[in-house]
Design a protein that fits this description.
CATH superfamily of the largest domain: Regulator of chromosome condensation 1/beta-lactamase-inhibitor protein II
CATH class of the largest domain: Mainly Beta
CATH architecture of the largest domain: 7 Propeller
Radius of gyration: 53 Å
Number of strands: 62
Strand order of the largest sheet: 31-30-33-34-39-38
Strand content: over 45%
Number of helices: 0
CATH topology of the largest domain: Methylamine Dehydrogenase, Chain H
Largest sheet: 6 strands, antiparallel
Distance between the termini: 109 Å
Length: about 725
């Protein structure tokens, strides 16, 4: 027996281990009987005329005499009945009113108390009844309901299975407490979503989710319930639907012909869902991909219809009900045969590299180029016969747009439908640099001496050797206050600036950096550069009125005057000063003006210089009847093997007379090629490939020839 109940003057009853109710006759030797229909009793009480059992479902069943409403079913019929209580109860007790009759009371889960039968208490102004149905008692008086034990914590929550769109979890049955479990409350949600509650019947210890999206993750927690309440929730279980297959290993190429390749792979592991098929992708340009489905039982496939001597990139993925795996590593296969193919070379900025020499050698040594090829102006070299596959490429003396020469050895792949592109590493710094010297007001300083330390002609980056076309480490600032340097700088490269006008020397220094640099001198008086709008006739005198400007210090109290300073002018090379009255030097007067006269014999820039005053430019003269200015926009390219095209624009001023011819000269060592044309371009053919030439263009009119425009061109 697990619980005993007194029968007072009647027969005592008790609750057996299996939940049945056993009653003994008043005479213990007279035996016992099992109350029919009850198998889930929690406790039992009795009176001489009737008994009541509290069942684990929270209901109360009474049997016996019902004349005074002892069965609580609203009738006076003797027998067995379920008491008509408004809520589940957790405890029952009796109130004996006389020898034979009395009342039965119950405490509900809400702690309310209900009594039925011949109750003597505060109900209906103290009327003893009888009450044929339970009535709520305002005060429980001497009765105190003890706390009933709710179910224990659910343990053992685990994922037992999963599919592409569902998960199944299960759990162990917890301790039930004072009453039988009435079921479970299962909460679930997608990760970071809102909880939803699902009631689960008692005896069911598993749950399968509704259909989810593939590769979903859910969180689950479970609590047990009984009439005594809801137990604590389990720990939260994180569960996920079935995952796609694992990433395939890298495929292998088992055979190749002129038009096909055979690719093989190992079976892919898929622990949750079986592999349905494989997706085989291939591309002949590494941009556009084709796909083919291969059944799950296959571990190889043949790709046909490929071009002779071509390359094909291949990758593999596996598919199951949960989705598609990530791609395998890409493997490249090659068909047999020799084809024509183009190698393109670009600098780090994507600009074409041209000229020089390009050779190749297959990695396994089975083929190599017998000839050197040069890069065209668009940075391409086309080889008439070359096998598909990886090749070692050697670039010698190829030229970047900025003028630098590069030598580089690398590897590329031959056979894809697009050009094989080789990209050079970035130059270590600019190969050309501009150093500008200026006054605080931004005007240029003409005639300053600039030099740079640690400027080298070549530098290496990631295996590429870059060489500047020439190394210029110093010079004198021009009319723009600039000096143009050539070479590669380093962290140690420093610029030294010195301005000496014969009266005062100023010096400045600083790092060159990777690009250009500017240096600002202390404030000094300067010469304003006049603008000549007329076209003087060749051999005539031109008067230049040069105004000077003093400078005021930052405190506004001291003024630097140009009075007494010397101003001079330097004509361009070849501009003879044989006119009577030419005056190329003068002293700044008290009015701050110096007057010079120059013999106009040549168009060009006449540079102003000063002593005690800073020159800030040059006077531009367009002399009528003089030789033309140099051509502009001159450019030489090698558009195809052995060909060079030189183009230019006419001079900005030709002396008032048309240009009658242009002379284009290509020089390499002692070899000189010359063409005379009347247009603005010239084509040279059948030139030796992979050679570099110096190009000059000269414009000629009936009054003479211009200064040459120079450039360097590598021939393809």
């Amino acid at each position: 027996m697990k619980a005993l109940g007194s029968g007072n003057h009647g027969s005592p009853c008790g609750v057996a281990i299996d939940g049945s109710v056993v009653c003994f006759r008043a005479d213990a030797n007279s035996g016992y009987s099992v109350v029919p229909g009850i198998s889930d009793a929690h406790m039992v009480i009795g009176a001489p005329s009737h008994h009541c059992a509290l069942r684990t479902s929270g209901t109360v069943t009474c049997w016996g005499d019902n004349q005074k409403g002892n069965l609580g079913d609203g009738t006076r019929t003797n027998g067995t009945a379920t008491v008509r209580l408004p809520e589940p109860v957790v405890h029952i007790a009796k109130q004996q009113t006389d020898y034979y009759f009395g009342a039965t009371c119950a405490t509900g889960v809400s702690s309310a108390m209900y009594c039925w039968g011949e109750y003597r208490g505060i109900v209906n102004n103290g009327s003893p009844g009888p009450y044929y149905m339970p009535v709520e008692v305002p005060s429980i008086g001497p009765y105190v309901a003890r706390s009933m034990e709710a179910p224990g914590r659910v343990e053992g929550v685990s994922q037992t299975s999963r599919s592409a769109r569902t998960v199944t979890v299960s759990w162990a049955t917890p301790h039930a407490g004072d009453f039988a479990l009435s079921g479970y409350l299962l909460d679930w949600r997608l990760v970071d979503g809102t909880w939803a509650t699902m009631p689960i019947a008692a005896g069911v210890n598993s749950w399968t989710s509704p259909e989810l999206a593939v590769q979903s993750t859910v969180e689950v927690r479970v609590a047990a319930t009984s009439v005594a309440g809801t137990g604590p929730s389990s720990q939260v279980l994180t569960s996920s639907t079935a995952l796609p297959p694992q990433r395939p290993s890298t495929p292998t190429i088992s055979a190749s012909t002129a038009n096909s390749v055979t690719v093989a792979w190992r079976p892919v592991s898929s622990p949750h869902e079986p592999v349905l098929n494989y997706q085989l992708d291939w591309s002949t340009d590494r941009t556009t991909w084709s796909s083919r489905t291969v059944s799950a039982g296959e571990t190889s496939a043949i790709l046909t219809g490929l071009a002779v001597g071509s390359a094909v990139a291949i990758r593999l993925s596996a598919v199951n009900a949960a989705g598609t795996s990530s791609f395998s590593e890409t493997v490249t296969a090659y068909t047999t045969g020799l084809v024509s193919h183009t190698i393109a070379v670009r600098d780090a900025d994507g600009q074409p590299v041209y000229g020089g020499q390009v050779t190749w050698r297959k990695r396994d040594g089975s083929f190599e180029s017998a000839l050197d090829y040069g890069l065209t102006v668009d940075g391409r070299a086309t080889f008439p016969f070359i096998p598909a596959g990886p090749v070692d490429v050697t670039l010698r003396d190829v030229q970047l747009l900025g003028g630098a020469i590069a030598n580089y050895e690398t590897t590329t792949t031959i056979g894809f439908s697009t050009d094989s592109v080789i990209t050079l590493p970035p130059e270590p710094s600019q190969s050309t640099h501009t150093v500008r010297v200026a006054l605080p007001n931004g005007l240029p300083v003409v005639g300053a001496t600039v030099s740079v330390t640690d400027l080298t002609s070549s530098a290496s980056v990631d295996g590429a050797l870059f060489t500047s076309p020439e190394t210029v480490t110093g010079g004198v600032t021009n009319e723009y206050g600039e000096v143009y340097l050539s070479g590669y700088s380093s962290d140690e490269s420093r610029v030294l600036v010195e301005y000496n006008d014969g009266i005062l020397i100023q010096r400045a220094s600083g790092p060159l950096g990777d690009g250009d640099a500017e240096f600002v001198l202390e404030d000094m008086p300067w010469v304003e550069t006049p603008v000549i709008t007329t076209e003087p006739v060749a051999g005539s005198l031109v008067t230049l009125t040069l105004k000077t400007s003093g400078s005021v210090s930052a405190d506004g109290r001291s003024t630097h005057s140009a009075v007494g300073a010397t101003v001079s002018i330097a004509p361009p090379a070849g501009a003879a000063q044989n006119c009577k009255g030419a005056k190329l030097s003068a002293t700044v007067g008290a009015n701050g003006i110096a007057t010079l006269t120059v013999c106009a014999t040549k168009s060009g820039r006449y540079l102003i210089r000063g002593a005690g005053v800073v020159s800030t430019g040059a006077v531009s003269l367009q002399v009528k009847g003089a030789a033309p200015l140099p051509v502009v926009n001159a450019r030489a390219v090698s558009p195809s093997h052995g060909n060079v095209t030189v183009s230019w624009s006419a001079p900005s001023y030709s002396g008032g007379n048309p240009v009658t011819k242009y002379t284009v000269t290509l020089k390499r060592g002692k070899k000189t090629l010359t063409k005379t044309v009347t247009g603005t371009s010239a084509l040279f053919t059948k030139m030796p490939g992979a050679t570099t030439w110096t190009v000059t263009v000269v414009a000629t009119s009936r009054f003479g020839s211009s200064e040459p425009s120079r450039m360097v061109i590598p021939v393809s």
